[in-house]
Every structure is written in structure tokens, then in C-alpha cells.
Design goal:
16% strand, three-stranded mixed sheet, ten-stranded mixed sheet
């Protein structure tokens, strides 16, 4: 009798487990088939952003307040969470949009991904990189490559503590070694407040006055890719007592006028490097013995 009761209880438990499994499976399918729509508030925020843009080629034609396309999750360049409907991604890259980047973006509180690269959008006042971008606290990806900015890079970007990808490249091509003096920074210590940063591209940003740039980079151990070509860096002959960049695979320093012995560079003990760009840096002299220990190196020039 006891054995039969135990078997019955086991069968009941199995039945409950199967039913629960199918419940969650159906619920997941329902979310995929009928994802949550964006909120009216976030739709209004995006429409306010659109107001400051000259959209000659109707890139944002789908951004409509009413009609079949009133759901902003279906708009060009916009992606939302399937669960909450919140806008989490805005990608308007490689478009001919002209105008200003509106502070209304601050009201997209769940935004994680912002890519405005290769557009003609500018800051709201003097053409600088907008300081308010440093208040988009949930950003993980920020790409401002090839935009017509000028002036100093705002240190407020150091408030983006979740950031994993940051590109402030003034040059349309990361291999371009021509310095663009219109965008510059005299202090990049704010980068040390980005503990999750994996990819950093500051190609052609003028860093002439940043003498301690190797020390700053060494304080971001999460870095895997570092692009600093054409930045007018003052030199690479910096002494670091301990190297923290054990995850660094890609180091691009081409187009910086170093003009000192190549053996005095700070990076020769970084055995994780796969790509090392030193083209047109005017380094001279024999390579150090440490080069033989860089077993992962695949490309060097």
C-alpha cells in the first residue's frame, strides 16, 4: 500500500513538472510572437530626438506618432526588450542624418546600445561631444566614430561604469594615422572609472599632452583592444612596474611620432598581444629580447 502511494506521489510530481515546463515554454513563445510594445513615454522621447534632425533621405520615415507604425519598437534603428518593451538599442549609424543630438535621450533610461557613428549629428551647443551622454547610466556600447565633433572629450563619459565598448575615433578609418586636432583630451584619467571596458578606440584624437597614457591604460585590466593611431602621443618609453593588461590582444599605435629606441617601449612583456601596430612611429634601434616571448603575436608592423 505504501509503495503504491509513493508511486502515485511520484507520478503526480512528474505531471506537475511537465505541466510547469510546458507553461513556461508557451509563455516564452508568446513573448516572441507578441513582444511588448514600447511605452508612449519612450515613443515621445524618440520623436523629440527626431525634431532636431534634418532627415533629407527619410531614414526615419517609420518614426510616426500615429498609424500602423506607432509602436517605436518597430522603427528603423530602434530595438526593444521583448519582455518589458523598453528601448534598449538605438543604432542610426552610416546614415546621412544632420542636426543635433537632443538631451531627450536621457529619458531612455534603459538604453544599453547607442551607435551614431558616421552621421552628421553634433552636440547641442558648440559641436562638442555632449556631456549629457555621460548620464546614460545603462550604456554598454557607445560608438561616435567619424562624427563632426570638435573640442575636448568630456570626462563625464567616465560615469558610464557599465560601458564595454567605446569609440571616439575622429577618423572614419581606424588605420588612418592623420591627427584631427579638432577633438582632443589633456586628461584621460576618467577612463580608469570604466572597469568593464573591453574595446577602446580614440583614433586621431589629439592626446599630445597626455604623458601618462600608458599608466592610464594599465589601470583598465579588462581591455582587449586598444586603438590609438594618429593621436600625437608624446612617447611610449614609459616604465611600468607591473603590467595589468593581461587580456590585451590588439594594440594599434601607428602614426605617432615616438622617435626613441624601440626597446624602451612599455608593452614588450604583454604576451597576450596578437596584433601590434607600430607603422610610421619612427622607433629605432634593435628589438628587445622580450619579443621572442610574444608567442601569440600574429600581425606586427
Amino acid at each position: 500500500m505504501c509503495r503504491s502511494a509513493a508511486q502515485l506521489a511520484l507520478l503526480l510530481l512528474i505531471a506537475i513538472a511537465v505541466r510547469t515546463f510546458f507553461f513556461f515554454l508557451v509563455a516564452a513563445d508568446a513573448v516572441q510572437l507578441h513582444p511588448a510594445a514600447c511605452s508612449a513615454h519612450e515613443r515621445d522621447v524618440l520623436l523629440a530626438f527626431k525634431q532636431g534632425i534634418n532627415d533629407t533621405y527619410d531614414v526615419l520615415a517609420s518614426w510616426q506618432e500615429e498609424g500602423l507604425l506607432h509602436d517605436c519598437c518597430r522603427w528603423t534603428g530602434v530595438a526593444c526588450s521583448n519582455v518589458t518593451g523598453h528601448v534598449v538599442e538605438l543604432d542610426l549609424s552610416h546614415t546621412y542624418l544632420v542636426g543635433q543630438i537632443s538631451p531627450s535621450l536621457l529619458y531612455l533610461e534603459h538604453l544599453e546600445y547607442l551607435d551614431l557613428s558616421y552621421t552628421f549629428l553634433q552636440g547641442p551647443a558648440d559641436g562638442r561631444v555632449p556631456e549629457f551622454l555621460g548620464s546614460l547610466n545603462n550604456l554598454r556600447h557607445l560608438d561616435l566614430t567619424g562624427m563632426p565633433f570638435s573640442g575636448a572629450v568630456p570626462p563625464q563619459l567616465g560615469n558610464l561604469s557599465k560601458l564595454e565598448y567605446l569609440s571616439l575615433s575622429s577618423s572614419p578609418d581606424s588605420s588612418d594615422t592623420t591627427t584631427m586636432d579638432s577633438v582632443y583630451s589633456t586628461d584621460i584619467s576618467w577612463l580608469t572609472r570604466l572597469p568593464l571596458l573591453v574595446h577602446l578606440n580614440m583614433s586621431s584624437v589629439n592626446l599630445t599632452k597626455v604623458d601618462d597614457w600608458p599608466l592610464v591604460m594599465n589601470m583598465i585590466p579588462s581591455l582587449e583592444a586598444l586603438y590609438l593611431p594618429g593621436c600625437s602621443l608624446p612617447g611610449a618609453n614609459y616604465s611600468l612596474t607591473h603590467l595589468n593588461l593581461t587580456n590585451l590582444h590588439y594594440l594599434e599605435l601607428s602614426g605617432n611620432y615616438f622617435d626613441h629606441p624601440v626597446a624602451t617601449c612599455w608593452f614588450w612583456n604583454l604576451t597576450s598581444i596578437q596584433h601590434l601596430g607600430l607603422y610610421n612611429t619612427y622607433l629605432h634601434g634593435p628589438f628587445p629580447d622580450e619579443l621572442a616571448s610574444m608567442k601569440a603575436l600574429q600581425v606586427g608592423y
